[in-house]
Amino acid sequence: MDSLDFSFHGQQFRARASGALSWPRQQALLVADLHLGKSERMARRGGALLPPFETAATLARLEAEITDTGARHLICLGDSFDDDQAAIGLQDALAGLCADLSVTWILGNHDPRPKALPGLHAKEQQIAGLSLRHVARQGPDISGHYHPKLRVAGQRHPAFLIGTDHLILPAFGTYTGGLDWPCAPLSALVPEGRAILTGRRAVMVPLPLPARRKSRFG
Amino acid sequence: MLDQPALPNRLAQWFTAQGWAPHPHQIAMLQAQGDALLIAPTGGGKTLAGFLPTLAAACNSLPKGLHTLYVSPLKALTHDIGRNLARPVADLGLALRIEDRTGDTSATTRARQRVDPPHILLTTPESLALMLSYPEAPRIFPALKRVVIDEIHALAESKRGDQLALCLTRLRTLAPGLRMAGLSATVENPAALAAFMGGAEIVQADPGPPPDIAILPTTLVPPWSGAGGAYAARDVMAAIAEARLTLVFINTRAQAELFFQALWAVNDENLPIGLHHGSLAREQRRKVEAAMAAGELRAVVATGSLDLGLDWGDVDLVIQIGAPKNIKRLVQRIGRANHRYDAPSRARIVPANRFELLECVAALQAVEAHDLDGDGRDPLGGLDVLCQHLLLLACAGPLDADALYTEITRAGPYASLSRAEFDACLDFVATGGYALRAYDRWQRLVQRDGLWHLRDPRAARDIRMNIGTIVAPELLSVRRGPRGGAPLGEIEEAFAASLSPGDTFLIGGQTVRYDRLRDMVVEVTPQPTREPKIAVFNGLKMATSTELSARVLALIGDRSAWDALPEHTRDWLRLQSEIATLPRPGTMTCESFARGGQSYFALYSFAGRNANQTLGLLLTHRMEQAGLAPLGFVVTDYALLIWSLEPVRDPGPLLDPEGLRNGFDDWLGGNAVMKRTFRAVAVVAGLIQRNLPGGRKSGKQATFSSDILYDTLRKFDPDHLLMRITRTEAMRGLADFGRIEEMLASRPEIVHSLTPHVTPFAAPLMLEAGRVPIRASGRARLLEEEAAAMMREAGLQIEAETGI
């Protein structure tokens, strides 16, 4: 399935196989940890020159998601840029996106200052009783930051974690790794609940995973 | 020095005092006027031959500074050589300073060596590359007179050889008066090795008497499958008891662990037997090495870590557990037994299962026929290695592209490098070499006054930390108990990831229980009484040669040749022939069976690993198209095993060459073999860093898989240099389509058996490591079924709600 519906604190959400979160009643699309400009930041620091295509790849996927869901609002849950300087070089690339819909830029640890980009720049936003922030704190909140992943049937997948107090999004950016549930502090934030694996399909599993017999060649 | 005497008097007297006479090839090495390559069997005094000119020169006192550089593939060898040289140097009263310099040498010593180098420096290719990356390099090397390259046959086969060849040409530029001596075990094509050195005079030693190799008679019969050889433990023990010192070689680390245990279980006389392999902690390995050198051991069970000509004199018997995979390797291993040059080496082989028995019989027939495997050497050195070399040289100082190109084409492996290829590598190092020129301001190298400079000199530290061409899987250290317990060894990260708390496995000869992973350290508790639950971690993976595969097929297919086989093996072949058709030359034999809810398809091609790997990729593609939902495959030199959700009922259409070719390129581009190759290339070329200053503290969030880079490049810049290198390299591990077509044409008859269960032939395939996953519809189906089952088990519905 391209997406899976679920509810969290009375609100209906739709987890997309891409890792974006659709919130139909708010006509909003939420994404976390785009890390735009990562390859440029690595290069600036004298490191390896990574293929400089990840910003284009991430934005192309994001635009496809906006078109598919018909969202009017885009909410980026922080670490949208790999650092504040990266945002400066990307104003032109983001102009089209910002012109078509209203954008909320939640500030993250990589991009802590408001940018010269259209839209709302804030540490947090409250919608329908839920806090939208970069790092999970006092719930109920929706956040990113940890790039959660989960290993099922022998493969690691970026995953939404849906607990009692916290809804944590996987990283949407192309050049991002991940932290496996139940590594700390993910297991403390979401000790039990559900996860939705992303990738080719959106697939729901319970948390914690029931112990199952490993198939030898799985 | 044209009229150099055969041997200075002092040296000649020293030889006499030892009761030795120099071998003719040792004198020939002393008299060689230019670069020389010595081909001699183990025990032929190779190393001394390499150092004789240095010792001769030292008899007339040497000026201060570096005179001789010794390069060996193993750190352990440099320690050994240092010890062996110490004796003649002391006896002759030579004023020679000898030091080693490897990854284990302290930073203080290394810094001092850059300012005040010893006369003789013993090192590895990686440490040499590192030395050349320092701005002091032009001051360290100009007085260098000699370079001795030990075990050059082992180095020349790999990317390490490419790196060494590049470093050697740099040394020639820094020290024009340099002469090189390559030391090699017996090889089939010495001229190729001489070309690798950039041209050298070949000195051939007397090969000595032929080795005495046979299969060890055992009281119990070998099992149908399995690789451990435990059934023969008692017979091996008896052979050890009769010999002075025995080396027991076994192919993988896991097998070494298991066999070591099996030996101790029958060691009634309590003979001292040690264990040595690359997963053990360094201190543990050193202990075994020292005990062996001191004559305190009767046997050592070892893997490849002990595999290169270590000069440990007293070994008089080599036992090989499991098939030797490659004939040349067998002969070189056996060279280790009995270092008395004039006595034949003694070796016994213990096949681990009946399939291997066939292989051993075929291998012995090949040794008898002097049919060594070819020395595969690629026509052009790795371009990823060249990229790393350019980056390292840039750390030492600004580069002149024209002069550098000329220098590099003097290296044997790069003699045919075109200027366009060189420029592409330089462009990659400087700008990333992308179709999108994104890094104008942040280039790694910038051109000033016609020379290429490192833009950010601080980057040199990171670059130096990533030296090397061995891309090993990430290893995690294993320690006893929480917080800094005794180190037991290392295991692969992928193996660690498969463990659950409570699982038991073998390491360092003991069974331990996995407790947890903390700060990249695997914490375990010893559990001596428990049977290990899991004992599969990969050691070295070795390929049998195509020639050997063909010999095995001929042996199976020809019943009249079965006389050479023991009764139990003939029975086993008969058993296979009762359940399925036996393979024979001219047929493509395959079988299908079901097991554990999945379908298996085994194809006995006997075409060698590369051809089988390619065939695996092609066939899984056809199966995906046919809706059979393949999940993965694994290959050996003989066979290919594919597992899928739906069974193969008719292999004919799948094996049709026309269909196999369709869509091949696209499927090939996205597969796991390609991604694995890309990772290695990207690490060597410096796109991915494996060593970050400050260790691996960075969290998982910061690092992302090289697969992402591969997919991105494939989509946005498919002709990028690293993609081209990846394709070339992957094709070396694969056979080209022409060869597959040829093979299919030569096997027109497809024989397919539907068997009720796993066959005697297929059983070993089920246990084979190195599986290639196929990420397509089959896995998606498996994942969804697995997830749905979990939701049911947890009593949850997909639409369930949590929290309010």
Structure description:
The complex is a heterodimer of chains A (218) and B (804). Chain A is an alpha/beta fold. The two termini of chain A are 21 Å apart. Chain A has a single domain (3-207), classed as 4-Layer Sandwich (Purple Acid Phosphatase, chain A, domain 2). In chain A, 20% of the residues lie in helices and 32% in strands. In chain A, a hairpin with a 4-residue loop joins strand 3 and strand 4. In chain A, strands 8, 9, 10, 11, 12, 13, 14, 15 and 16 form a nine-stranded mixed sheet that branches. With 804 residues, chain B is α/β, with parallel strands linked by helices. Chain B folds into five domains: 9-204, Rossmann fold (3-Layer(aba) Sandwich), CATH 3.40.50; 212-368, 3-Layer(aba) Sandwich (Rossmann fold); 384-465, no CATH class; 475-526, no CATH class; 580-784, no CATH class. Helices cover 41% and strands 17% of the residues of chain B. Chain B is built from 32 helices and 27 strands. The longest helix of chain B is centred in the first third of the chain and has 18 residues, at 75-92. Chains A and B meet through strand 1, helix 1, helix 2, strand 14 and strand 15 of A and helix 28, helix 32 and strand 27 of B.
Short description:
The complex is a heterodimer of chains A (about 220) and B (about 800). Chain A is an alpha/beta fold. Chain A has helices at about 40-45, 55-70, 85-90, 90-100, 185-190, and strands at about 5-10, 10-15, 20-25, 30, 75, 100-105, 120, 125, 130-135, 140-145, 150, 155-160, 165-170, 180, 195, 205.
